[in-house]
Amino acid sequence: MLQRQQLTISLIISIVLHALFAVTLLLLAYLTQLKEPVFTPVKIVNLPQKTLRQLPPIQQPPPPTRPIFPERPLPVPTPKKFGKSDENQIPKMLPRMGKPEGAEKQNKEVGKTSPSEASKMAGPLPFLSQQDIDELARKGMPKKNLGDNSVTLDTDEFKFMSYNRWLKIKVESVLRYPELAAISGYQGTLYIKFDILKDGTLGDLELLKSSGYKILDDEALRSIRDAAPFQPLPDEWHMDRYSIRAAVIFYMNGGYIR
């Protein structure tokens, strides 16, 4: 009796497993047919001419109609004339920093120049030349205090000229226009004073006059610190400390030291 029950149970399990296997195969076959594209067989038959004449004519659908709008002439832009009233109309991110010395004198003499030269001088773009930058730096330089033996970076003393030229290149190589200041349109000129010791190390560093923007002042002071150490002072100078007063100009996304 027990053996018959075991055989019955085994037979039932076997039938159930085979049924599940068959259902799985059918399901896989159905999913495979869904993925494959279904092609409808087409049989091409050449009908006789007599039969073709009896067929109704094929009517093609009319093309879709589109609304027709009346053509309007494009507006013609009027050329803008730049005059004295438009002189300061430049992008806000590039504000003017003032006219260099002699600019008013040049405006008075425009009528005496040729038309080609007058058109160049009347342009609204505030580009500064190298000479304009130097004059701008000199114009706002703070006066020396009593007992101050410092010299300006653009001094005419022959013994300092070669050293100062190298010093400008060294500082301007690390001077960067702050990205936030460029986006905000901050421009300005600040004045600093710093000392170079006998071995070329940086001594005192002082901000004499602010540009009006702390971000520009901090960048100028940072450039002096990062440019140090400098070249040692020449022995023939017989100086233990070289004090320099300089202007740092941030203008048109560029930084200069003068």
Can you walk me through this structure?
With 258 residues, this protein is an alpha+beta fold. It has a domain at 130-257: Fusion Protein Consisting Of Minor Coat Protein, Glycine Rich Linker, Tola, And A His Tag, Chain: A, Domain 2 (2-Layer Sandwich). Helices cover 38% and strands 14% of the residues. It contains eight helices and five strands; from the N terminus they run αααααβααββαββ. The protein has helices at 2-35, 49-54, 103-108, 115-121, 130-139, 158-172, 179-184, 214-227; strands at residues 151-152, 188-197, 202-209, 241-251, 254-257. Strands 1, 2, 3, 4 and 5 form a five-stranded mixed beta sheet that branches. β4 and β5 (254-257) form a beta hairpin. The termini are far apart. 12% of the residues are buried.
Topology readout:
Blueprint: H1 2-35, H2 49-54, H3 103-108, H4 115-121, H5 130-139, E1 151-152, H6 158-172, H7 179-184, E2 188-197, E3 202-209, H8 214-227, E4 241-251, E5 254-257
Parallel strand pairs: 1-4
Antiparallel strand pairs: 2-3, 2-4, 4-5
Average pLDDT works out at 75
CATH architecture of one domain: 2-Layer Sandwich
Listing every helix as H and every strand as E from the N terminus to the C terminus, the arrangement reads HHHHHEHHEEHEE
The residue fraction in helices comes out at 25-40%
